[in-house]
């Protein structure tokens, strides 16, 4: 798994503070950034947090490059709809030699790992076999339509991916670029940094939060699962480790 912060709003803390200042002060656009010292910035951001005014934080966004994760994670992360996603296509990219992500629980049990690896090998064989059958059929179709053999081969290989991908497993690797504003990120961290979140997306979320804190520490000072700032939102399904969670996320850097 690899998570990188590849772009973000410069001076995000200050931009959000300026937006808040516009809402609550008489400053015009030309003087909005004047006298916004680090103390003033922190004061404005603390005020927004205290009164629950979240729209100003939407003016700052963060873009991440993520790879070495599974298609199972893709299905989860794209549920966060106030975000932008660009994902490696299994339709246009050949996955004959796909890598796959092994869950830690499976990796820790030799018998389970052997079964899992065997399943991945079988999937790869079926993908390659199915693609070869599809390429052969499509190539002839393109030749019959008047395409040259080389052109028909190229077109057939690309087209075959579209249907061959249906046998690829959830464990198949993928990569993506994800952009979210601060408000969406805070909600994402609240849900996905929780101890009850699925292990892979939790690891991604923790790394994303660490990267956010490194460049916008005030905006993300209290980010994390719900128990970091108050009561656990999981009710009877709580992990029961609120104290440990608070210590972990307060020290995350």
Overall description:
- The protein is α+β, with helices and mostly antiparallel strands and 253 residues long.
- It folds into two domains: 2-87 and 173-250, Gyrase A, domain 2 (2-Layer Sandwich); 104-167, no CATH class.
- 50% of the residues lie in helices and 12% in strands.
- It contains nine helices and four strands; from the N terminus they run E-H-H-E-H-E-H-H-H-E-H-H-H.
- It has helices at 12-24, 38-51, 71-77, 104-107, 110-144, 149-164, 182-192, 199-215, 242-250; strands spanning 2-8, 61-70, 84-87, 173-181.
- The chain has a four-stranded antiparallel β-sheet with strand order 1-2-4-3.
- The two termini are 18 Å apart.
- The mean pLDDT is 92.
Report mean pLDDT, rounded to a whole number: 92
Overall structural class, as computed from helix and strand content, comes to alpha+beta
**What do we call the CATH topology of the largest domain?**
Gyrase A, domain 2
Low-confidence stretches: none
Our count of helices gives 9
As a percent range, the share of strand residues is 5-15%
Choose one word for the global shape: flat
Query: Can you identify the CATH class of the largest domain?
Result: Alpha Beta
Rg over CA atoms: 24 Å
How many β-strand stretches? 4
Proportion of residues in helical segments = 40-55%
Number of domains: 2
Keywords:
Gyrase A, domain 2; 253 residues; four-stranded antiparallel beta sheet; 2 domains; alpha+beta
Short description:
This protein is of the alpha+beta class.
How do the helices and strands line up, and which of them pair or pack?
Blueprint: E1 2-8, H1 12-24, H2 38-51, E2 61-70, H3 71-77, E3 84-87, H4 104-107, H5 110-144, H6 149-164, E4 173-181, H7 182-192, H8 199-215, H9 242-250
Antiparallel strand pairs: 1-2, 2-4, 3-4
């Amino acid at each position: 798994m690899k998570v990188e912060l590849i772009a973000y709003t410069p001076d995000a803390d200050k931009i959000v503070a300026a937006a808040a200042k516009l809402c609550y002060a008489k400053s015009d656009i030309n003087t909005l950034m004047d006298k916004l010292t680090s103390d003033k910035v922190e004061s404005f951001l603390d005020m927004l947090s205290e009164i629950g005014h979240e729209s100003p934080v939407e003016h700052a966004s963060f873009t991440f490059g993520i790879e070495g994760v599974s298609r199972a994670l893709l299905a989860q992360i794209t549920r966060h709809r106030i975000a932008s996603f660009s994902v490696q296509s299994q339709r246009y990219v050949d996955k004959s030699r796909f890598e796959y992500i092994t869950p830690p629980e499976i990796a820790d049990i030799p018998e389970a790992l052997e079964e899992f690896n065997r399943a991945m090998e079988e999937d790869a064989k079926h993908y390659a076999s199915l693609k070869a059958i599809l390429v052969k059929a499509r190539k002839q179709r393109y030749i019959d339509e008047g395409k040259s053999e080389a052109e028909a081969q190229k077109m057939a290989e690309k087209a075959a991916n579209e249907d061959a991908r249906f046998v690829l497993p959830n464990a198949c690797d993928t990569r993506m670029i994800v952009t979210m504003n601060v408000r969406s990120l805070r909600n994402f961290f609240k849900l996905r940094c929780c101890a009850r979140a699925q292990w892979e997306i939790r690891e991604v979320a923790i790394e994303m939060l660490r990267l956010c804190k490194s460049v916008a520490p005030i905006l993300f000072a209290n980010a994390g699962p719900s128990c970091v700032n108050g009561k656990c939102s999981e009710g009877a399904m709580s992990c029961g480790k609120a104290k440990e969670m608070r210590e972990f996320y307060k020290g995350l850097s």
